[in-house]
Amino acid sequence: MNAVALPTSVEDTLALLSRGDYVADRPLATALFLALRLKRPLFLEGEAGVGKTEIAKVLSATLGRRLVRLQCYEGLDISSAVYEWNYQRQMLEIRLAEAGGAQDRDQLARDIFDERFLIRRPLLQALEPDITGPAVLLIDELDRTDEPFEAFLLEVLSDFQVTIPELGTIKAAEPPIVIVTSNRTREIHDALKRRCFYHWVDYPNAERERAILHAKAPGTPAALSAQIVAFVQKLRRLDLFKQPGVAETLDWAQALTELDVLELDPDVVRDTLGTILKYQDDIERIQGAEAASLLSEMRAEMTAAAAAGTVSLPV
Fold first, then answer.
1. Helix locations, the chain, DSSP H
2. Along the 315 residues of the chain, how does pLDDT read in single tens digits?
3. Which domain of life is it from (predicted)?
4. Rounded Cα gap, residues 24 and 246, in angstroms
5. Distances (CA, A) of 291 to 3, 113, 139, 169, 260
6. pTM
7. Least crowded by CB within 10 Å, which of 41, 150, 245, 300?
């Protein structure tokens, strides 16, 4: 793929994201533009399913850069995130050297701790040069890791380098584009946040969510899209265990389109709640009378908005 020049303004950044079918608001585009311009990591925090990870994917696709993804989890360590030595190959090298009569053990030790035996994991891969330009490094769901791993990341995010005791310090010739995401299941240490620009990615308003549906699920009828967004927006005002994100809105739209649904009704909502709600307690709360009540309120609000000329009434 051919590399594309970085955007030179906030408007260019909005256009870049739009080419990747990502509907961003101006504050997000501003934070991203500054991170790209000033070569700083961008720390994106927000609820699951609001589009944080997608930003890195869109940047990779629209800029023509290699995407390197580090999916975080509890217990993630350096051997999985940065590098490890290929012990099998090292042992084979030792045996071959001994069979060949090698006597210099110091030289043998230097030989086996050579880059030929180094297995590069995502963080080290992202520091390597590439013909298309610096990679897009996605450090996804950092809040799932332990605090010691956060401490290790400080060197990577501030100096774009890692230190391997046997080889020394490996530094990127040009910093990668770094996107760090967190679902805020725990607080990330201030030392790490200071090395990044920060943006909270919130649920979109109705207008932006309709635009997202239009971009990501263009096969959904316009009237149904409007109803889907209005219903999901109402769900987010309830005290649910897990509110539906944009990802769930898209899943629901695709599911309803596949079922040839043209309009929401209580039966349709009941049968497909599992595409937007992921906890049984939430599903039980919305089923039945609550779903009918929400649909009734939704229709009344959409009718009133259409009468006021703020939105078009679905047909």
1. 10-19, 26-38, 52-63, 78-81, 87-99, 105-112, 122-127, 147-159, 190-193, 206-216, 222-235, 246-258, 266-272, 280-286, 289-308
2. 567 899 999 999 999 999 999 999 999 999 999 999 999 999 999 999 999 999 999 999 999 999 999 999 999 998 899 999 988 888 888 888 777 776 666 666 677 888 888 999 999 999 999 888 899 999 999 999 998 899 889 989 999 999 898 888 999 999 999 999 999 999 999 999 999 999 999 999 999 999 999 999 999 999 999 999 999 999 999 999 999 999 999 999 999 999 999 999 999 999 999 999 999 999 999 987 888 999 999 988 888 887 877 654 443
3. Bacteria
4. 12
5. 48, 63, 38, 59, 20
6. 0.88
7. 300
Measured distance CA(28)–CA(47) in Å, rounded? 15
Residue 35 CA, chain-centre distance (Å), reads 16
Q: How far apart, in whole angstroms, are the C-alpha atoms of residue 280 and residue 283?
A: 5
Other beta carbons within 10 angstroms of residue 118's beta carbon come to: 17
Q: How are strands ordered across the β-sheet holding 136-140?
A: 67-71, 136-140, 177-182, 42-45, 197-200
Between the CA of residue 55 and those of 49, 116, 180, what are the distances in Å? 12, 34, 10
Q: How far is the CA of 219 from the CAs of 20, 114, 213, 216, in angstroms?
A: 17, 54, 9, 9
Backbone φ and ψ for 189, nearest 5 degrees, come out as -65, 145
User: Pairing relation of β-strands 42-45 and 197-200?
Assistant: parallel
Q: Cβ-count burial of 275 within 10 angstroms (0-12 exposed, 13-18 middle, 19+ buried)?
A: middle
In 3D space, the residue among 29, 20, 42, 8 whose CA is nearest the CA of residue 196 turns out to be: 42
Tell me how far apart the alpha carbons of residues 210 and 216 are, in angstroms, rounded to a whole number: 10
Tokens of 224: 């149904």
> How many angstroms separate the Cα of 76 from the Cα of each of 118, 151, 259?
19, 13, 41
